[in-house]
Amino acid sequence: MSACCNDDPRIHDIKSKIRVVPNFPKPGIMFQDITTLLLDPKTFKNTVDLFVERYKNKNISVVAGIEARGFIFGPPIALAIGAKFVPLRKPRKLPGEVISEEYTLEYGRDCLEMHIGAVEPDERALVVDDLIATGGTLCAAMNLLERAGAEVVECACLIELPDLKGRDRLKGKPLYVLVESH
Amino acid sequence: MAAAAAAISPVPKDDLERIAKISATIRVIPDFPKPGIMFQDITTLLLDPVAFKDTIDLFVERYKHMNISVVAGVEARGFIFGPPIALAIGAKFVPIRKPKKLPGEVISEEYSLEYGTDKMEMHVGAVQPGDRALVVDDLIATGGTLCAAMKLLERVEAHVVECACVIELAELKGRDRLGEKPLFVLVSST
Lengths: 182, 190
What we know:
Chain A: One of its GO terms (biological process) is adenine salvage. By secondary structure, chain A is an alpha/beta fold. Chain A is 29% helix and 31% strand.
């Protein structure tokens, strides 16, 4: 079961605070907008707490967040569990020496980058983003961490779009989500 | 780098110690994104859990009794520092983004770059009249981005209480571009 216990009263509140915006960024897409969740301090705190409760005793030494919405949820988790935070970014944003991982989009390709030296071999890593769709971005993120010698313990997202089967693209790594959207 | 806060009022020794440690974790990358620019890289700060926590704590200690109801973070590095501050002080977090990223109805504010202009956007309805706002970014350079963020908030009749950054590039006089709005930074780089 991917989502955490559905009878946790915090989950219902979190799901209700996510706004669906039709036809964004293009016709036919029902965009899952987490900005409305961020407007409710209690709900935002509950969201972070649910992840922290899961990971605080798992010896996670690095939380990697995917630009840009992974930057909102990753750092609070990292701070609470005493892990370092590593931003995974679009090309040419990180100023130092980087490693790059290319991945496919619906049309074309994109690239995710991580600073060299940010992650050491054998570190235990958590990858965080707001949502998993096809899993392409998360897969690229996992590859970057593994290329640096880290072990990806789990991927964590607020929202999963299960119909897009992103879970299958995570190379057998576990995925933990709070809500599913069909 | 100097502890900027000391110039304004006496800073407790503990604060100075934390600031010195924070300052030491910031990495300077020459000639990024173009020749002649000494880029202040905060990603190395984020690799030190104590330094990162101290950074957030210093802001939280300052703002927790100021009745701040909204923390606005400027994309993308403002998204790293803003949310932990918002969570700790019980404020909402509002992302201020580059064009076409926010999915709902937005208001836009244009601002000038060295060459040309750019825009920042905020969701309509995120901020209410009378909200007391803090604007957060990792660094203030010319102040153009912060100024645009402030204008977005003021256009919806929020009161911008202060702008907060980890780093100030004092030479670029961004502080002056904020007019009467106070700016609080942890480290000042010349």
